[in-house]
Amino acid sequence: MKRGFLNNKRNDTRVPENKAPIQRISVTDNAIPNSPALAGCSQQNADREQLQFRFSSVCRLYSRDPAIVVGDHRLPSGSESSFLYLPTENPTMVFVAPLDMVQAVAEWDTIKHPCAPLQNPPFIVRSSGSKGLGMFASRAITRGELIMRERPIYVAHPSLSILPDQKHSFFISALAGLSPASRNALMLLRNAQPETPDVGMVRGILLTNALAAKITHLPNAPLFPSVFPTICRANHDCTPNAHYVFCAETFCGQLFALHNMAQGEEITIGYTELAATKATRRESLETKYHFVCECSTCCLPPERAAESDRRREVIAGYLASMKKGEQFPTGASLAQVKNMMRWADEEGLVEVASILGISAWRLARSSDDLLEQVKMMVVVINYARVLEGKESVTFQTLAKRMDLSTEELGGVLDSSTPETLDYAYLAQRLAPTMAKSSR
Questions:
Q1: Residue 305 in this model has a pLDDT that exceeds 70
Q2: For a disulfide at 238, which of 17, 259, 260, 297, Cβ 3.0-4.6 Å?
Q3: Residue 327 vs residues 23, 175, 314, 324, 345: alpha-carbon distances, Å
Q4: pTM score of the predicted model
C-alpha cells in the first residue's frame, strides 16, 4: 500500500470556553540526539535539536485517564481535534481526531494492550546511500514471511480542524505528550518536504513518512495517516519486495516479504501507484516526496522500459474500470485477465496481481466454470497469505469456509504445485463458499 497523506480543514469560527489551559511542558532537557539518518543535513539537525515540545496556549486538558487533550479550545464543541495518548503512563502513541472519535478509541480493549514484538526480526537499519537510512535483510527471508510488526507512534484523521495561527504549533503540541523515546524516534525520521508557511519541520516529517491505516473499528472511516518508527524506514522501489498492511485487529502495522530475499538485500515498499508508467510514477514521487526514482525498474534499458510501461498502462486501465464498481469490464475475458496477472507477476506487482486474481475468479464464476473457479480461488488464497500473512482475517475466513485450520490450509497449498494440486478435494471444501458467492 502506498504511503498516506495529511490534509487539513481550516475553520475560523472561534468559540471561547472557560477551561483552564493545560500545563505547558518543556522537554528541552531531552534533546534529540545526533543520528546517521541526518548525515549531510546539519542545519536540519540543528533545527530539530532546538525544537521545544510544549502544548500551545490554546490546548486544554480534557481528561487525565484516558489522557486526552483538546488541541484548540476556540473551535466549536465537537469539531475540535483532540490528542489521545496511549498508554496513559509513558505514552508511546498519539491518536489525533475529533473528540468524540478519540473518546471511542480510548475504550477499545485492543488498543489498551501492547503490540506483541517480533522476536529476532530478520533485518537491520543502516545507510542506504543518498536515500538515507533503509532496512536490509540480516539473513535470508522467505516469501510471505513477517518482517516487522509494530504499533504506530502517530495516527491522525486525514481532515483536521486547525486555525491559521496554529499551523505549526498544532503538530508540535500533538507530540508534546508522548514519551521522549517515542517522540525522538519519530523526529529522527527523514523530512523530505521543503519548509513553507503551511509545512514546518514536524509536519514535514509526518507528510514524508505517513502510511495509510484502515481502521475497521470505525465504520465508513477514511484511511488514517500513520507513522511507524521502523516500518517507515523502508525505502521506495517501483518493484518492491515487501508489502505493508495495517492490522486493525491488533492495531499494528505489518511488513511481509513479497519475494525470497537474500541476506543484505534492501527491503522496499511502494510509495505511489505502481500500475503506472515510469513518467507518471516519477512525477508523483517528485511531487509528494521530492526525489527522482532511480530504482532498477526506472533504469531499465529503453526497450524493456517501454514494454514495462505498456503492460502497466494496460493493467491500470483495467483496474480503473474495477474502481468504478465493475467486478470486471463488459467484454473482459478470463484469458485476458489471466494474461494481465502473468504480466503483474513478471513485473513484481504482487498486490496488483492479487486484485486481478479476484476479478479472474469472478469471471470464472460468471461462466459457471467450476474448475477455473477453484483454481482462481487458490490463487487468491495464496496471494492473501503472502500479502497479509496466514493469521490475516482474509486467510482465516477462507480457511474457516473450507472447514480447515490455517495450518491445514497452508499445508495443503504448500505440499503441492499448481499442476499436482488436488482441485477436486478443494472444490469439495470450497463448495459452501461457491454457493454463498453465487447468491
A1: yes
A2: 297
A3: 55, 43, 17, 9, 21
A4: 0.85
